[in-house]
User: Which sequence fits this backbone?
C-alpha cells in the first residue's frame, strides 16, 4: 500500500521529492494503440507550473516531462509508461532554516515522527510538486477518454463566489484569466483579493468546481468503489484539500426527499440533477459535478511561531516563493485526478458484462 | 476491483442482496489472538437495525450475525473471519410494483443499464442493508483498536444544527435519544422534525459528525492514501452520502492562512485544530473530526412519477417501510467505516519503520 | 494480503476451517448475465468429494454448495457471489489426540508458531477441505470460459507413469476409472499401487498433467504476471504440491536452442510445442500444458513420532480417514485453479487494446 | 494488474524497454531508516551485466543505476525509491531485420497479436534487460533482510549436473568461476560445454538452485499466498524459466509418506528436510531450497526459419550478441526475486499478531 499508487486498471505510481534529482512516475495499464498528443500533455504541465502569472508563486521550474518507455513511434504500446521531470531549481540552502524546526500546519512534524527521518528540503515528498506527475498521467487519461469533457474552474476565493450555476458559464473562458474562473467579473474580484492577500504576506483558501460531461451510463462500481467515492478520494488526496461534495452536496442534507428527487424524462434523463450525475455510485448519463475545498496555503511571508526539534517555540520569518492562493494552479490537478478516476472505471466497465 | 472489498491489510469483502437468503462478508487480515466481545458486535448491529425506534423504518429484521470461521475458543486465529446474517423478512411481493419501473433518485435504472439485469427485490445490492456487514466488521476493528475512541453523532437534521462545538458535548448522551444527537434539546427538535416529515410521507436529510480520539501520531500514508482521503472514500461509499469535510472543511476555504494555521505548543500539540488532527495525510495526535452529508431518502410514501421500462412516465404511490431520515441509523455505519480505515492504517504503520 | 484472495478481476476470497460451521467464499468480478449450470457446479464438487471411490478417504462429507447472493433467476447479476458449504461431519473428538502435539510434515507446528494460536481440529485452515471453495469458483469460471477446454488427469502415481504423449490420450476416459487416468491400463496399475500402499497404512505421491485448449492468442501479461507464472502460483497454492513445470519444463533445461525452438507454420501455429503454448508469458494459440508434482500425504495410519508442545518426542498411532494418494481427488482442484487463472486473464485482456 | 508490479508491501513496479532511453522502477514500501550500501547494489548489477566473462553475451551495457528519490543522506526515508538505468548501447539498426518477422520461440509474435503494436527493437519489453530493475530492487531487499542468507548457484548446464547435495558445497566459491557453480570441477565441465555450444552458434539450458538460510518460523501466508507459491511465481516470471520445484520437488511425487515425512527433533527442527523449509506455505525455520529450470536461449547464431508478417516462412541468419547459456547471469536475478518475495513476507508478518 504505502500510498504511492492510484488506480487499479489505469494505474499511476509516482516517486520523487521536491528537491531530489527528479520526480516522475509509471503509468501501468494504459491500453495499446493510443496516439499521444505530447503538446497537450506539456500544456497541462504549463497550467500547473509555478511562475505562470503574477498571482502564483514566482519559483522557476522547467517542468518538462521526458517519457522513458511504453511509447513507440508516438503510440502507446501497452507496456508501462515511465516518465521523469528533472528538478532543475533545487535551492536546498533555502530550506536550511527549517531543518531543525516544524512549521505550523505543514507536514514536517508528522513525517519526522512517522518515519524517524525526513527530507526537509522543500517539504520533501509532501510538497505539491509531486502533483506534476499526476498532471502528466491525467493528461494521458484525458486523451484516452477523448469523448468525455472535464472542466474544472475556480468557483470561490475566500468569500468571493461564482453565483451563477455552471450551466450559465462559458468554459472557454476558464483560461482567459489567471484565476481560472470562467465568470470574468468575478475573476477580477478574485484576482484583486489574491493580490491584496499576497501583499500582506498572507494566503487565502478557495474552492474548485469540476463538471464532467458525456460519461456514458454505467461507470462506477457499487458498494465501496462508488464513482463519487473514488472521485472524493482522488480530490482529498490533493494537497490542501479539506472537503468534497457532489451534486446537491451539503445543501442536500438540508432538503426534503420531495424536493431532492430527480424526476425522469421518458428518455431516462432527469429533469433536475441534484444527484450530480451519479446514482448508487454509478453514472446515470447526466452531468457529473462536484466541488472541492482548499485551505489557505500554510506558508506565510510573515513572522510566525514554529516548533524547534528540541521542543522550543521560536518566531521565524517566512520566506521563499509560495502561492498566495493555491486554487488557480490546482485546476489542472483536479482535472488530472478526475481523468485518472474515469480512466480506471472506463477500463473496468469493459469487464462487467459478458 | 468490482468494488466489494474495502481495505488492504484489514480487508472486508461483502456479499448479499437485501432479499437473497443471506448477506455477510469475509474479514481477512485481522491479527490473531484478539479476544472478541460478541455482545458488543451484536450491539452495534442493534444500533443499525430497523425498527429500533419510532423515527426509523418499522421493517422487522433479526440481524443476528453468525460467525463461520476464523475464531477459535473466542479468539481470532489469524485466518479469515467469515460471517453471515440471514435475511428473515423477505417480502419479495412488496416489490413487484417496481419490477418494471425505475424510481427517481434510486439506483434501479443505472443497475439495469450497467449490468443488463437487476435483482429488483428491495433494491438488490444497492440496498443499505449491505451496511449490516460493514457494521459487523467495524465492530471487530473497534475491538482491535481498543485505545482509539470513535464517536459519531447526528449534527444536523434539515435546518436544525447542533450549534455547540463537539468539545462541549457529552458523547455519553448520544444513545440517550432516538436521533443519536448528544445535545438533548436539539435532539428533541430534530425528532419533532423527523416525525412531522414522516407524517407527510416525506423524508429529510442530515449530517453526522465523527470525532476520533487517541490516534497516535503517524497513521495515514502520504500522497494517494492520505488518512483523510481514505476516510472520505469510506464515508462516500455509504448509501445517500453527498459530501465529506474534515477539520475546517468548506469553511477553511474562506479563511486566510494567518487565521487557519494551527500554532504548536512545546509538546507538539497545537493550540487550535483547524487541521482536524491530520497533516499531509498523517495523524498528528490531535482529535480527528469530520462531517458527512446525507441526502434525504429517495423513497417517499407519496405519489411520485416513475419511469417504466418501456419508456413511459407513470404516477406511483410509494409504499413500504422506509426511514424518514437516515442519519440516526447511519451513526453506527459511520463509526464502523471509520474503524475499518483506522485498522488498516494501524496495521500498515507496523511496517513503516525498521 | 493475508493470502485468502486469488485473482484481480475474477476474484475469489475463501473462508473456513475444516471443522467450523461452514466454509465458503465470495466470487467478485464475475460478469453479469452468465446463465449458471448448477448441476455442473455440484458435479465438480462430487469429483473432489471424499468417499467417492475405494481408493480415496472414506470420510463422509455432503459438500453441497448453497449460493447466497449474486444470482437472480439463474443468472449472475454482476454483484458478488457468496456461497457456503456446511461442515456436516465434524468429529472434533477425533482430533483431541493432536491438540498437544505436532505431526511431522503437517502445518500444525508452523501455524501455532506463526499465530500463537491454532484451531487444531482437522488441520483447521490448512486442511485441504478449503479447496472445496476453489472448486465451486472454478466451476463458475469454467462456465464463463465455455470455449476453452481444460482437462487435467493423473499422469503418474509413484513410479508408474503414463508413457504416451497427451495427444495420444482420450480425455473422455479420465472419469472412467477412480484414479482419473485416461490410459486405462496404466490406471489399473496405479490403482493397484494405491491399494497396496493403503494396506500398509502408507501414502504415495503422484503428478497431474493439465492440458488447456482453445485459449486465444494474447492472454497473460508480460513481466511479473506471465500466464505460466500465475498458473504456477495457482498450482503451488494447492495443498501438497511440490513442483510445477510447463511445456518442456525441466527437460527443456537439458536441451539446446536448436532442438528447443518451435518453428512456425505460415499461419502462425508452430510445428512443435516445447513452449507449451506460451511465449513471453502470453498465450500463442497452441495447446497449453503443464505438470504438477504432489508429495505423498503426510497423515499415515502407522505408528509415527510426533513432537509434543512441551518439547518431547512421542510415538503416536495415526488414525482417521485419509487419502492414500491425493492426486485422483486433486484433478478437479487443478482444473478449478486453472479456470480461475484463465478467467482473470480473459477479463483483463478486454482492457488491453483501445 | 497489467503485470508490471511485484509485491504487496514491499512493492516493485518496473518500466522500460531494452532500447528506449532508460529503464528503471519504483520501490514502494521499503521501511524508513535503512542505511543503503550503494556499492553492494551496483555489485549485484555487475553480476547480471552482459560482457562480464567470455561465456556470456559480449554486449556492452554500462548498467549504472541512478537513484532519483526516497533516499536522504544515505538512508531510506519511507517514500518511494525511484531509480533509472540509462540505455547507453542502443543499436536499433541491429534489429531492422526482425521488424517484419517473428523469430521462433520469441515473444515477437504474441506481443504484436496482443497489443496490435510492438516495439521490435531488441525484444522491447520482453527483453531480459528488464531484469536489471529487479536486481536493483532485490539488492535493497537483501539489505533489509540482512540476517537472511540467500545463495543461488548454477546446478546444471545441459546434462552436466552438480551431484553433491548443497550442504556439501562452499557457497563462497560461487563467484570463483564464470559459470557461478560452487563445485569447481563441475564448473569447468559446464564452462567447456557452454564454449562448445557457443562455437556452434547454439545455446543450452540449465538449472539454478537457491538456498535460503535463517528465515524465522512463520513467514508466508496460508492458502493462496503460500511462501513457495510466491517463490514459484517469482521464478516463473523470469525470462526463459520453464519449471520450479522446492524441497523434494518432482522426486517427492515418487515417494511414500513414510519416506517423505520429516520427523521432528525436540527443539522443533527436523531430522530430514524434504519439506524444503516450508510447511503449509509457512517457513518452519529449516533451510528453504528450490530449483529453477531455464530453457536454452531462443536466439541462435545459426540459420533459422522465421515467420514474416505477411505470412511467409523465410530463412534468417541469427546475429547479435547473445548468451549461449542464460543461467550464469540469471543467478543474481534468482536471488533478487527471492529477496523481493521474502521482504514482502517479512513486512506482512509484522501485522499477523497483536
Assistant:
Amino acid at each position: 500500500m504505502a500510498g504511492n499508487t492510484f488506480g487499479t486498471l489505469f494505474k499511476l505510481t509516482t516517486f520523487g521529492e521536491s528537491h531530489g534529482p527528479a520526480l516522475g512516475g509509471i503509468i501501468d495499464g494504459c491500453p495499446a494503440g493510443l496516439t499521444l498528443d505530447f503538446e497537450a500533455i506539456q500544456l497541462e504541465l504549463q497550467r500547473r507550473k509555478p511562475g505562470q502569472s503574477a498571482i502564483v508563486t514566482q519559483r522557476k521550474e522547467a517542468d518538462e516531462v521526458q517519457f522513458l518507455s511504453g511509447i513507440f513511434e508516438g503510440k502507446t504500446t501497452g507496456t508501462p509508461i515511465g516518465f521523469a521531470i528533472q528538478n532543475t531549481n533545487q535551492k536546498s540552502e533555502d530550506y536550511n532554516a527549517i531543518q531543525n524546526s516544524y512549521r505550523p500546519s505543514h507536514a514536517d512534524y508528522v513525517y519526522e515522527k512517522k518515519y524517524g527521518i525526513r527530507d526537509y528540503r522543500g517539504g520533501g515528498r509532501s510538497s505539491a510538486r509531486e502533483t506534476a506527475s499526476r498532471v502528466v498521467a491525467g493528461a494521458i487519461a484525458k486523451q484516452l477518454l477523448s469523448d468525455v469533457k472535464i472542466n474544472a474552474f475556480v468557483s470561490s476565493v475566500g468569500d468571493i463566489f461564482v453565483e451563477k450555476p455552471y450551466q450559465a458559464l462559458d468554459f472557454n473562458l476558464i483560461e482567459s484569466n489567471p484565476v481560472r474562473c470562467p465568470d470574468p467579473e468575478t475573476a477580477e474580484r478574485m484576482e484583486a483579493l489574491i493580490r491584496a492577500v499576497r501583499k500582506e504576506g498572507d494566503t487565502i483558501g478557495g474552492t474548485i468546481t469540476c463538471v464532467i460531461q458525456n460519461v456514458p451510463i454505467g461507470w462506477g462500481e457499487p458498494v465501496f468503489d462508488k464513482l463519487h467515492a473514488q472521485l472524493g478520494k482522488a480530490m482529498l488526496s490533493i494537497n490542501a484539500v479539506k472537503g468534497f461534495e457532489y451534486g446537491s452536496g451539503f445543501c442536500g442534507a438540508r432538503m426534503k426527499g420531495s424536493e431532492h428527487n430527480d424526476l425522469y424524462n421518458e428518455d431516462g434523463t432527469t429533469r433536475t440533477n441534484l444527484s450530480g450525475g451519479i446514482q448508487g455510485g454509478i453514472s446515470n448519463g447526466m452531468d457529473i459535478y462536484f466541488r472541492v475545498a482548499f485551505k489557505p496555503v500554510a506558508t506565510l511571508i510573515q513572522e510566525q511561531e514554529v516548533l524547534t526539534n528540541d521542543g522550543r517555540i521560536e518566531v521565524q520569518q517566512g520566506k521563499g516563493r509560495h502561492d498566495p492562493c493555491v486554487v488557480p494552479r490546482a485546476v489542472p490537478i483536479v482535472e488530472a485526478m478526475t481523468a485518472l478516476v474515469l480512466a480506471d472505471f472506463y477500463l473496468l466497465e469493459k469487464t462487467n458484462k459478458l
The interface with chain A takes residues 1-2, 4-5, 8-9, 11, 13-17, 20-26, 28-29, 32-33, 66-70, 72, 75, 77-82, 84, 114-119, 124-125 of chain D (CB under 8 Å).
